[in-house]
C-alpha cells in the first residue's frame, strides 16, 4: 500500500460518497482478520495504516501483569520496563510483528471483506438518506414488475409499490415516471427496503403542498383529508387570513392547480371544502356538492343529522354511500342524512331544527355528469314550484 492507494480511496469517496476513514477502518479490520488466520490466531494484535503514506504495520499486544500465564498475551512488569520505564501494571505493550510475505496473503484475504464493508457503507448512506423522508413524496421510474409488485428506480436504490398500495384500475408501464408517498423505510440485510404508496392520503396532501404555494408557506392550512384512492377524495382547508380564500387557492386559476393533481391521480375526483369551527356548517360543507337545508348536531356523541331536499338525497349519499362516507371521515362525525319528506314523517314540526346556512361556501371538482345531474334536479324543482 502506498500514496497511490490512498488517492484511489479518495476517488472512491467522491464516487460512492463513503469517507476514506471508513474504508481504511474496514481495510484494517480485514488485514487483522487475515493476520490472525494465517499467522497468530491466538495473539492479541492490531493493524495500523498510516493515513499519509498508506504503509501498514501489524502490532502484537500484550498486557503488563505481575505473573505471566501466557507469554503470547501477557508480559511481566520487569520486562515491560526494559522496553519503556513508564509502563505500569495493566498497560498494553505493542511490538511490530508484520510478516515479510504478509502483503500478498493480506490482499487475497481482505478483498471480499473490503468489498462487503463498502457495500454496507453504501447501504447505510442510502438508508440514512431515505429514513428521514418517511411521509414525503418522491418521483421515480418504473423499473420492473414482479408478482404484481412494482419496483421503482430511485437512482442508487429502488422502492417497492405493493399491490395493496396500488390505485384500483391504474396500470403501470416500464419506464413510466411515477410520484409515490414513502410509507416506511426498513433496514434489511440486503440493504434498505423502501415501501411506497399511491393510495395513502399523505400523497394527496403532499401533491397539494407542491401545487399550492399558500399551503407550503402556511397561509392556508389543510385541516383534514378523506380519500378513497382512485375514486374520490375530499379535503378541508382553512386560512386565518380573511383576505385569502383557501378553497380558491387550492383550486387555482381556472382550476389549474387541482386539475394538475387530478391528472397525476389519473382522474380521481377531488372535492375541496372550507373548514369551519362550527360543526354544523362544516358537516354541511363536507357533503358538497349536495345542498343542505339544515343540520342538527349532538356534540357529546359527535352525531349530526343532515336534512336535504328530496331531490338532493341521492346526491348527498352518493354512489354506494361514498359521498356520505367521505364526509364522515373528513369531519370525524357520524352523519345521518334525511330528506325533507322523511323528516316530515318523523317530526311534522321539523322546521324548528333548521339553521341558517346561507353563508356556507362550497367548492367541488365533481364531474360533468354530477354537474348535469345537479342542474336537472334544480330544473325539476323549479318546474314543480312554478306548477304550484
Automatic annotation (TrEMBL):
<keyword id="KW-0889">Transcription antitermination</keyword>
<dbReference type="Pfam" id="PF08529">
    <property type="entry name" value="NusA_N"/>
</dbReference>
<dbReference type="InterPro" id="IPR004087">
    <property type="entry name" value="KH_dom"/>
</dbReference>
<dbReference type="GO" id="GO:0031564">
    <property type="term" value="P:transcription antitermination"/>
</dbReference>
<dbReference type="InterPro" id="IPR036555">
    <property type="entry name" value="NusA_N_sf"/>
</dbReference>
<dbReference type="InterPro" id="IPR012340">
    <property type="entry name" value="NA-bd_OB-fold"/>
</dbReference>
<dbReference type="InterPro" id="IPR015946">
    <property type="entry name" value="KH_dom-like_a/b"/>
</dbReference>
<keyword id="KW-0806">Transcription termination</keyword>
<dbReference type="InterPro" id="IPR030842">
    <property type="entry name" value="TF_NusA_bacterial"/>
</dbReference>
<dbReference type="Pfam" id="PF13184">
    <property type="entry name" value="KH_NusA_1st"/>
</dbReference>
<keyword id="KW-0694">RNA-binding</keyword>
<feature type="domain" description="S1 motif">
    <location>
        <begin position="135"/>
        <end position="199"/>
    </location>
</feature>
<keyword id="KW-0963">Cytoplasm</keyword>
<dbReference type="InterPro" id="IPR009019">
    <property type="entry name" value="KH_sf_prok-type"/>
</dbReference>
<dbReference type="InterPro" id="IPR010213">
    <property type="entry name" value="TF_NusA"/>
</dbReference>
<dbReference type="Pfam" id="PF00575">
    <property type="entry name" value="S1"/>
</dbReference>
<protein>
    <recommendedName>
        <fullName>Transcription termination/antitermination protein NusA</fullName>
    </recommendedName>
</protein>
<keyword id="KW-0804">Transcription</keyword>
<dbReference type="GO" id="GO:0003700">
    <property type="term" value="F:DNA-binding transcription factor activity"/>
</dbReference>
<dbReference type="GO" id="GO:0006353">
    <property type="term" value="P:DNA-templated transcription termination"/>
</dbReference>
<comment type="function">
    <text>Participates in both transcription termination and antitermination.</text>
</comment>
<keyword id="KW-0805">Transcription regulation</keyword>
<comment type="subunit">
    <text>Monomer. Binds directly to the core enzyme of the DNA-dependent RNA polymerase and to nascent RNA.</text>
</comment>
<dbReference type="InterPro" id="IPR013735">
    <property type="entry name" value="TF_NusA_N"/>
</dbReference>
<dbReference type="InterPro" id="IPR003029">
    <property type="entry name" value="S1_domain"/>
</dbReference>
<dbReference type="GO" id="GO:0003723">
    <property type="term" value="F:RNA binding"/>
</dbReference>
<comment type="similarity">
    <text>Belongs to the NusA family.</text>
</comment>
<dbReference type="InterPro" id="IPR058582">
    <property type="entry name" value="KH_NusA_2nd"/>
</dbReference>
<dbReference type="Pfam" id="PF26594">
    <property type="entry name" value="KH_NusA_2nd"/>
</dbReference>
<dbReference type="InterPro" id="IPR025249">
    <property type="entry name" value="TF_NusA_KH_1st"/>
</dbReference>
<dbReference type="GO" id="GO:0005829">
    <property type="term" value="C:cytosol"/>
</dbReference>
Amino acid at each position: 500500500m502506498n500514496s497511490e492507494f490512498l488517492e484511489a480511496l479518495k476517488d472512491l469517496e467522491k464516487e460512492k460518497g463513503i469517507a476514506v476513514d471508513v474504508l481504511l477502518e474496514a481495510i484494517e479490520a480485514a488485514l487483522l482478520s487475515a493476520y490472525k488466520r494465517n499467522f497468530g490466531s491466538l495473539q492479541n494484535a492490531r493493524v495500523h495504516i498510516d493515513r499519509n503514506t498508506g504503509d501498514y504495520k501489524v502490532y502484537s499486544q500484550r498486557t503488563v501483569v505481575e505473573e505471566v500465564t501466557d507469554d503470547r498475551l501477557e508480559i511481566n512488569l520487569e520486562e515491560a520496563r526494559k522496553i519503556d520505564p513508564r509502563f505500569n501494571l495493566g498497560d498494553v505493550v505493542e511490538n511490530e510483528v508484520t510478516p515479510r510475505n504478509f502483503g500478498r496473503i493480506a490482499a487475497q484475504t481482505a478483498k471480499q471483506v473490503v468489498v462487503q464493508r463498502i457495500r454496507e457503507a453504501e447501504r447505510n448512506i442510502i438508508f440514512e438518506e431515505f429514513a428521514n423522508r418517511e411521509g414525503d413524496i418522491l418521483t421515480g421510474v418504473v423499473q420492473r414488475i414482479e408478482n404484481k409488485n412494482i419496483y421503482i428506480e430511485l437512482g442508487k436504490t429502488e422502492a417497492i409499490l405493493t399491490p395493496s398500495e396500488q390505485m384500483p384500475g391504474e396500470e403501470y408501464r416500464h419506464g413510466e415516471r411515477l410520484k409515490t408517498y414513502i410509507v416506511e423505510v426498513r433496514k434489511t440485510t440486503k440493504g434498505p427496503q423502501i415501501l411506497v404508496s399511491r393510495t395513502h392520503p399523505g400523497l394527496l396532501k403532499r401533491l397539494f403542498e407542491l401545487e399550492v404555494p399558500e399551503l407550503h408557506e402556511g397561509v392556508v392550512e389543510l385541516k383534514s383529508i378523506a380519500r378513497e384512492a382512485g375514486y374520490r377524495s375530499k379535503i378541508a382547508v382553512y386560512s386565518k387570513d380573511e383576505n385569502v380564500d383557501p378553497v380558491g387557492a387550492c383550486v387555482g386559476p381556472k382550476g389549474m392547480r387541482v386539475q394538475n393533481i387530478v391528472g397525476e391521480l389519473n382522474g380521481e375526483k377531488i372535492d375541496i371544502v372550507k373548514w369551519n369551527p362550527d360543526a354544523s356548517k362544516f358537516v354541511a360543507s363536507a357533503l358538497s356538492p349536495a345542498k343542505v337545508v339544515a343540520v342538527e348536531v349532538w356534540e357529546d356523541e359527535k352525531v349530526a343529522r343532515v336534512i336535504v331536499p328530496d331531490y338532493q338525497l341521492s346526491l348527498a349519499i352518493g354512489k354506494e354511500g361514498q359521498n356520505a362516507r367521505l364526509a364522515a371521515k373528513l369531519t370525524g362525525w357520524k352523519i345521518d342524512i334525511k330528506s325533507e319528506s322523511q323528516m316530515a314523517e318523523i317530526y311534522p314540526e321539523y322546521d324548528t331544527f333548521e339553521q341558517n346556512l346561507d353563508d356556507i361556501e362550497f367548492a367541488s371538482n365533481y364531474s360533468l355528469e354530477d354537474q348535469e345531474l345537479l342542474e336537472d334536479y334544480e330544473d325539476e324543482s323549479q318546474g314543480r314550484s312554478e306548477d304550484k
